[in-house]
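Side project, low priority. Logging it here so it doesn't get lost.
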Amino acid sequence: MGGPEIRSHSQPVIHGPGAVLRIKAWWPSLSLVRQFMLAGAALVVLGLGLLGVWTSSKIEQGIEAHSGARTALYMEGFVAPHLQELAANRRLSEENVRAVDILLARDASRIGVVAAKIWNREGVLLYATSKDQIGQAYRVTPKLARAWNGYIEVEFSQEQAPPGIGANGAEGEALLDIYVPIRHATTHDIIAVAQFSEIASELKREQEDASLEGVIVGALSGLVILAALFVIVANGNRIIETQGASLANRIAQLSELLRQNEELRQRVQAASRRSTEDTELHLRRLGADLHDGPAQLLALALLKFDRLSGQNGGTPHDQETIRSVLEEAMAEIRDISAGLALPEIEKLSLAQALIVVATEHERRTSTRVSCELSGKPIELSHTSKLCICRFVQEGLSNAFKHAGGVGQRVSASWTDTTIVVEVADEGPGLTLAPKQEKRPALGLIGLSNRLESLGGRLKIDSETGAGTRLTAYLPVGAGGQA
C-alpha cells in the first residue's frame, strides 16, 4: 500500500454541439472578474488536490522512514548482538533465541511490535515469534531482497493484527512491516534481515492528521492567494473599464470629427464643382459673345472696306495693310472663341468625347493627333467628363504652341475606380522663353486646380529635347453622379 487512495470523480458530460456552442457564447459574456473567479477557483481546487496528494505521499514516506529508523536503532542496539553468530552458522542457538524472546517480551508492548522474524538469504525463517514457522522457506519478496542490499524497507502488511492487540484491542488493525538489515559487528557484512510487524493504527492517525492539516493550510493559503489576486484583477478590471469608456468616448469624438471633415470635404468639392460648371458656362458665353459680337463687327468692317477699296479709298498698299490686320484680328478672335467653347459632349461617352476634342484640334490646327483609348464603357458625371476634355484640350493646345504639334498623342485608360489620361508630344520640352512662360504656367496651374477640385491630380514629365507628357488621374466617382 502506498499513499492515500485517490478517487477519480467523473466530469459532467456535455451532450451535443449545441451545449458547447452555448458555453462558448456564454463565457465571453462574463466580465473579466467573473472569468477570473471561475478559472481561478478551478485552478486552485485542482492545485490543492494535487498538492494534497503529493503532501500526503511525502508525509507517509516521512513517517514510514521515521518508523524504520526507530526500529533499525532498536535492532542494532538490542537484537543485533544476539544474531552475530549467523555470520558463521546457518541457525540461531537456543540461547540466542531465548535472549531475543526475552527482549521482545520486555519491549513489545512499548514499541508496538506484534511479531518478529529473522530471515536468511534463501528466504528461510531463522527466528519467528510463532515458533512453528521457524525453519520454513518462503518466497523472497522485493522488500526482503532490497533489505539484503542494505536498505531499510517499510510497507503495510497484508496480514492483520490478532484480536486483543493494539491500541483499541480490536481485531483487524493494520500492521506495518519493517525490514532491517543485520550487519556483522566487525566486517559490517549483512548476515540476516529482521522483520518487525508493528501496529499501524497510531501511524495511520498521524498520517491522517498530517494530511488534514496540510489540506487546511493549503486551502487557507489558496483562499488568501485567490482573494489577493481577486483584488488585483478587480482593480485592473476597473481601470480597464474606465480607460475603455474614455477610449470609446474619444473614438466617438474622433468619429464625429471625421464625419464633419468628410461632410466639409464633400461641401467643398460640391462648391468647387459648381464653380467649375459656372466657369465653363461663362467661357461658353464669352466664346459666343466674341463670335457674335467683335467677330461680326470685324466681318462687317471687312465688307465696308471692300466697298471703300472699290471707290479708290486710299492707296492700294494701305488698303491691303488694313485688310490684313482686320483678317488677322478676326481669325484670332475666332480661334479664341473656338478654344473657349467645347463641342457638345454631354450625350457622348468618355471615349467619344475625347475623339471629338482631338478631331476638333486637328481641324483647327491642321496637325495630326494619335489616340489610344482602352477600357470598358463607364458611367461618368458630366463635370468629370468636362474636366477631362478640358485637360486634353489644354494639353493639345500647349503641344501645338510649344512643340509645333509634333508627335501629339492622347491616351486614356480607366478601371471601375480611376481614370488615367495622358497628353504627350515630342517637342523640345518645357524650356520656354521668358515671354512665353506666363500663359502656359497659368494654364497648367488651372488644369491642376480643376483636377484637384474633383479629387484628382496632375503629373508633369518633361525632358529637354524629349518632349512633354501631362498625366491626369481622376476618381471615377468624382463630380457627383452621372
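Brief comment: The chain has ten helices and ten strands.
Revisit when time allows.
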